[in-house]
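3.2 Worked example (two chains)
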Amino acid sequence: MPYPHIIFDLDHTLWDFEANAEQVLNQLYNEYLKELNIERSDFMNIYRANNHHLWQQYHEHKITKHELKARRFPDTLTQLGLKLADLDFDIHKLEHHFIERSVEMDAVFPHCHRVLDALAKSSRLHIMTNGFVEAQHRKMKSAKIDHYFEHIFISEEIGANKPSSKIFEFALAALDCTANDCLMVGDNLVADVGGAKDIGMDQVWFNPDSLDKPATIQPSFEIKCLSELLDINH
């Protein structure tokens, strides 16, 4: 029996953050860092590690959106051994260009459009994201997936990040349904799976890289490819 509602995370679940970010980071490296004797791979790897760490802190309300955006590039360049005061460009340009260019990228995970087409025939589809409000709608439009979704629940607008029960309760009220009517699909075991589980909602852990699953969190379902959702929602 299909779920009446399927709620998707966006980044790392439908919109391929890593693929899109890599394109933009390569552009920024070529424009700003190539002549500074910084290895491209070092820049990419350190940025990814910093970005992941800062997003985890943001999910946990340990830092603000402003702090995340203000730190990820300066922290990266500092760890690469650069003195920010000696740079001949404004470090804040990196963050500005990263956001503005990223939202124009259109890479999604394999089978994304086909799966959304099929699911939309039997279920109402929605987005729930901790991403920044100024970026998420533009990402979906660039990737040509915005038309699939009825409701877009953005934590920044609601005032609560996943995994807080507040954002899930807000969604249930907006959809006028119960947790049993919904399926949450996301890549983050804490924010997506844990948050949905805590409110009694079934969850799908999207795990394309076959990461090890900790014993502390057991999702309702685990998939490596979005196409597997069609076997779950039938």
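3.2.1 Second chain
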Amino acid sequence: MTQLEPRDPRRSRGSAVSAEGGESDRGIRWLRNIGLTVAVAVVLAAVLRALVGPVYLIPSGSMEPTLMPGDRVRVDTSHEQGQGLERGDVVVFDGSGSLAPYRSRTSLDRALEDLVVWWGLGARSDVYVKRVVALPGDTVRCCGDDGRLEIDGVPVDEPYLGRAVDAGHPASGTEFEFSVPEGRMVVLGDNRSDSLDSRALLGAPGGGLIGLDSVVGTAEDVVWPLGRRGALDGPAASTGEGAP
């Protein structure tokens, strides 16, 4: 009769330790891979920012057809605080206290949100992208007899709207008139039927006038997706023949 050799308890413990060690090694490798992926993403974002400049994500359709949801636009910060702005510029600005209520955020909240925006992976809820239609000294109204905006009584062509504008299809379904003082501007979305802009603040404190000191910069071109890469319409495209 064959006798079974007694089982060595040390060998069993060694196998268990080896299995646990293997699982631990796999966990460490997984964390290392995640860390490496994040590090590569940070480096690529830094290189992109250095080569291209600040990039902002477009989260909504308020600027269609010029900008589509998911577009990422390069921002020229030389126009920060409204320096050198022209009518027709597509402007990025902080809407806190105007289009967006002031928010109480912790330092960690701000840091995380700024990091996501810096990577171009998300959009700040209080930063807006709109079209400048009037600047200090302008009187802008909607609409004239032909349905177009008027600045100081002169009709303005807006080809970036991507649709016909006439008496039956005015440039804005909401009538308005703004006389713009120093340090202020009037902004509208290109998608006039679905845009939160100066018109939403008619009758509110400030009357829909946005501070030039809130300007982050101007959106210059789409950098992503690749199929939509290209420069945005410049100010010259926003003024009609004979417009000031």
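3.3 Remarks
Residues 9-52 form one domain.
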